[in-house]
Structures are given as structure tokens and as C-alpha cells.
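Good morning,

Both structures are done.
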Amino acid sequence: MTGRDLVAHLARFAGALRAGGIGVGLADELDAAQALTLVDLPDQDEVRRALAIALKIRPADRELFEELFHQLWTELPDRDRRPEPSRATSPGARRARGQAHRPGAVPDEMLAGEPSPAADLPGYSPEALLRRKPFDQCSAADLAAMERLLARLSLRLATRRSRRLAPTCNRGVVDLRRSFRRSVGTGADLLWLARRARVVEQPRLVVLCDTSGSMDPHSRFLLAFILSLKRAARRTELFAFNTTLTRLSPWISPGNVGLTLERLASVVPDWSGGTRIGESLAEFVARHEALLVESRTAVVILSDGLDRGDPEVLVAAMRAIRARARTVIWLNPLLGDPRYQPLARGMEAALPFVDHLAPAHNLESLERFLTLLTA
């Protein structure tokens, strides 16, 4: 079997796993392809163990993985497979011979049937993998699994203390000026100390989410994140834009995030269509900015910056938003690629009016975004 045939067969196998509900992404397939260069391909057990490790198969999915492996991976034509090693050859000799002609080969103990020691590390837990998984590799099943993590993120925002200090009757830092002022005013001794503490201050958010075709792999997960934030930070206004602007707040109701997203997709015109960022933001400035944006408001724009409209219109809209908002944050999923540069026409036009340009390609990047809201 040629290398191209092997990669094609691996892709079919990964597709069958996804169809069965096992979350396998492109990065996992690349890891698996690399693993297959390090094992003895005629040895089915070795191949099976290598794929299970490289594709990060969870114990709950192991039975289905074994079944699909037996159905698909053992159906390779005999002419494309090398002869099986002789049964008379001892496992140790076969190992030594295989490693002798495979420089840098992975030792068999790393492909043992027992879980790899690395699987016990926090970075290999299903939750940690889901937090780092790019949105464009996520499935509908991943969205359901993310809801619990999204709820936890929103709770973190709702309970995060700001840097601002406010008077408190409980524990806190001593406010000497207020303490002396009270004692002088009453002519009493300094027997009571005024205190201040950091308060839990919910940010005022206006979120504008790009739902054009280029954002389609990301927008559903980003909207799910914002819906979770709105449950905790109630002073959040949500808009969707592509070729037009749609206010989503009236359509949002408590409940299942997936069902809410389906409802939103049905009310937003031209969902997954073209995009005119400048015209959409100009409409927001004309119809909503005066009422919704003030000196305490953070305006968050979720977009890849791929704009088909007039850059001057975008510049004027961004200048108006920046003049009123406390901060302007632009979350761009493309920033997840280290090779990305903000050279797209829309992104380049908006950048001078953006306080923070940050990635938004997975849950881990959105966690870092929360720190910008309370900075």
C-alpha cells in the first residue's frame, strides 16, 4: 500500500469514527498518520494500539473503536499488505528486528494495551482536550459536551471581582481617609475603621457576532459562549451581522443552548452568507449605540475581518464606537493560527480602533478573553 493509499484509508476510518459519535479532529488524524510511520503495519495489534493512542480514544468509546477497526482496517487487500511475521518468531526478537530497521521507532511499551502514563496527566483528560479543540474541528456532540464548561466560564465572570474598591461592612482594606473623616465629624475617637473591598461588578457588554459563511465553523460555538455569558452577565446585548444587522436579545430565552442556536439561525437573514462588516456596524451606530453604549460598556466584535464592503464605512463606524465605549475587544478565530497576520481589508481598517485583538478559536482562548472584561 502506498503512502497516499494509507492516508486515504486512515481518513475513511476517522470519518467512520466521527459518524459513530467519536470526536476525532484533523489534528488527531495527523497524529495518527505520524504514528503509522513508526509501527509495523502488518502487525494489526500494533496498528490498533497506535491508532487508539494517537486518536485519543476514550474508554467509553473503546468498544465502538474496536468494532470499526475490525470492520475497516482488516479489509485491506492482501496484495497491499506485507506478509505477517512468522509465528515461530518470539515477540522480543520481532521487536528487536522491527526497531533495527525503523530508526526512531516507538518502543512497544509505548504502544501497550494499557493506557499510556501520559493519559493520567491533566492535559490528556477529555475536558482538557475539549477546551483546546479548535471550533472548526468540533461536532454537534462537542457542543452539547461544552455546555457544562460554558456554564462554568459564565459563572467565573459573574463572580469575578473587579479592581474597584467599594465601602463594605465586612472584611477589607482599611480606608483611613474615610475613618478619620467620620471620627472628626462626630468628635469621637478613632474607634471605628472604615473598610473597602473589591466588588463583584458585572460588565456591561455589547456583543456583535459575525455569522457570515467564512465564520460558519466558529459562529455557533462563539454564540453558545455568549449565550452562557448572558445568563450570568444580564446586562449583555447580542447582535448578529453578515450583510445586515439583527438584534438577537429579544429572541434569547433560558434553556438548551443548542435549541436556542437553532432558533437564532432561523431568524437571522443570510446566515452563513456574505458579509458587510462596515455597513452592519454603521447600522448599529445609527440605531443602537446611543442607547446601549456608554463609558462603562465593553463592545466585543467576533469576526475574522473578511469584509466585502467599503473600508471607509467600517473606519467611520469603529471610530464612533471607540469614542463611546470603555473598551473595544475584537475576537478573531484566525488568530489561533500562529502564521496569521491581520492583513484582511476589514481587519486592517478596524485595527486602529481596537483596544484588544485576541484569538477565539477554542474554549481555552475564550477563558483568556474573560480577563480582558474585568481588567
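Second structure follows.
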Amino acid sequence: MSSEGDDQNADGALRLSALYSAATASDTVSGLTHNFYRYPARFSPLFAREVIRAFSRPGDLVFDPFMGGGTTLVEARALGRYGLGTDISSLAVFVAKAKTDLYQESDFDAVQAWAKSVLPNLNLRNRPAGTGQWIHQCYPENVNSRSTWPVRKTIELALSQVSTLKTRAREQLVRCTLLRTAQWALDCRTKIPSAKDLRQQFLVFLNETIEGARQFRHAVCESEAIHRLSALTCTSLHTSVIGLESDRRIAHLPRPSLILTSPPYPGVHVLYHRWQIRGRKETPAPFWIANCQDGYGASFYTFGDRKQQALRKYYETALSAYRSIAAVAAEGCVMVQLIAFAEPNWQLPRLLDVMGVAGFEELRQKDGPSSPDGRLWRTVPNRKWYATLKGGTASSKEVVLIHRLSRTAV
């Protein structure tokens, strides 16, 4: 299988050496809007970029049914493709929209002026207005200790002022920067920073957010000009992919020629919806900061509890999901997944069986820099996982699976 460039579909596998390098790269996530928020289990933009270039053309629709932090959508739009993403997490939808929207210079000027006006006046003795409902619903749960309350109170005071920004786009930028700053201050930190340090770091992150948003806007405009496209959009839906074929919100969109995603990992515990305070207690604070509703346990986001017998619920849910994905995809659509397994010896074959029933046939490499089984495996250095099953393999060991939708499934 080969690909000649950005404007040519791959009729087989990717340019193997380029894909292998991108899949195994240890570079930190950076560029465009990718650092707006550190969403758990995100994959490398380099990997997403190489897959999109090889398996789609400018003007095509690229779909991520488990979009998480929106890496696929950011790269798709920057490369001149339409993007579609779905996720059952309202936090994921917030982050993806924040990262794929286009902002104007007037928006940047307004949020910088807001920060200059508001931050110096955040007095911890003051009582913030308009945040009582979130406190009552326990969203800042476990952020009330002696060391963490200054961070919580500073965020609370700042959030009480976001309505003064007037527009949704500007409020979104500030909330996303507050989200990143609070994550930096709280998530798995042993030493919690002071309120002063938090305010200073917010300004650093705000400047980085603005610069990333500028880069993204430039990339999108450049791609539209080069490929003579206009109004490339990204659609991020807060919904399960199961039943998406009946969703009227996608009726006007073309069928995706490429599906690029990282689904829930079988038997692996990844905390998508909470932060951990000092590695012990969980908090739903990110939903509070993003102005999103949650209320679900970890198994809601992972196709069921990882300790369920034979992962029955996981594979039943996966089959329903892949059937809906097949129902909305274009004929011959390629699906590329990055996934890890607690026990790959039996969990991987089971997943492949599920995908086969849903109508996808695997594409494996007979030559090139792949492993003996014809797949690309990678180990992720310094990946932050909260837990793995006892006796299972390291959850940082991931595999790239490439499938094509069979003709009979369309």
C-alpha cells in the first residue's frame, strides 16, 4: 500500500516509515491549539497529521467517534478537511470546540484586557457571586483542604467574572485557560501552588492559548486558500456514537472517508472525567470550570467497569458503536485506531472479531517497520495512567489498528 502525497488517497497502507516514525515519536504534544488542555490518553498530533494526509483528501470529512480532547479535529481542519467528532463527555465537547473554533484579534484583546482588570482584584476574602449552584452540587469536591482552598477560591472568583466578557467565544477562551491552569495546579500534584502562583501561571497560559489559536487560524486559512476551499467547519456533538446514523444534525454532512480515533481501552483504567488531588481523592472540578454537567461514574466513559467478567459489557457496547460507525461511513472508509489492552492476548482478538462483525476488515503490513504481527506497536514514555489490572501488561503499550469498511457492509 502506498500514498503519493496530500491530494492522493492511499489504496493500501500508509507510507510505512513515516507512519511508524509518527506513531512512535516521543515528542511532547505541542503546536496549534493542542496544549489548550491535557486530555487523558490523547495521541500525538504528528500521528494524526500523518494518518489524515495519507488516508484522506482536502475537502473530505474526517470523523472521530471518541474525540476526547479533539486532536483529530484540530489536525483535520488545519489540513483542509471537515471534521466531525462525538463524545459522551460534555467536558470533551467543550475542549474540542475551544480548540477548533476560529478567534479574532478583537477576542484576544478582550480576554487580555479582562485578565489585566480582573486578576489583580481577586481577593480571597471576597465572596464570589453566581457560583453557588456548583458548590451545592459538589463540583469543587475534594478541593477544600488547607493547601487547595486558595486555588479553588481563586478559580471561583475568576469564574464569577467571566460573564463580563460579553461573547461566548471570549468566555470560552478564558474558561479553557482557567481549566488548564487549575489542572496544572491540582491534578496529581504533590505540592499545591499558591494563589499568587496560580494567577501568574494563568497569564503565561493565556498568552500560550492566544498564540496557539493564532497558529490554528493561520493554518486553516492557508489550507483553505491552497486547496480553494471555503468555510471548513468542525462539528463536535455531545452524544454517543451509538445511533448516530439517525441523528439529524449530521444529515447535511458528507460521509467520512477516514475515521481516526482512540476508543476506550479494554480493561484499562483511564480517568477521563476527574482530576486526582494528591493522587488519592478525585474531583469533578473540570466540569465546573468548563460550565458542563457531569454526574457519571468512570465506567460510563469506558464501555463499562474494567473488572467485569470477560469484559462482556465492553464488547457488547463496542459492537453497537462500530455498527453505527459503519452505518455513517463512506464505502471503502479507512478506520485507524490507537488502542491499548490490559491483556492483549485475548482482548485484541476479541476486539478484532467485534470489528469484523460490524463490517470492518483489518489491513496488516507484510513488510516495512511494523512488528512481526503486521501491526504498529508503541510504548508511550511517561504516560500518566492511574491504574492497571493486576497482572496485566503495561497500559502504556499501544497498538495502531488499521481497518477498511468492506463493500458488503455499506
